[in-house]
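Risk register update: the risk of archive-format incompatibility is retired. Evidence:
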Amino acid sequence: MTYVVCEPCFGCRYTDCALVCPVEAFHLDDEMAALVINPETCIDCDACVPECPVEAIFAEDKVPAEWAHYTEINADRSLKAGLPIQSEKLDPLC
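Archived output:
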């Protein structure tokens, strides 16, 4: 299982969650102004969830139904788009 960044992050881009990730699973997607999680890197440690101030991160099996498509978005964007790993603090956009 992995964690998934959902709708509240898009257009906001807090990076607090990426700073605590022990395996650098977060990637910055400037096109969507958000972070995404690489499902192949994520170790399901849960460290990122309490750090997200907009409550945008969910365990894959607990993603709200209206945001289910974000599981695929995270995987596609992090694995295929060649996005940079995000491990430094950035100013949020919201």
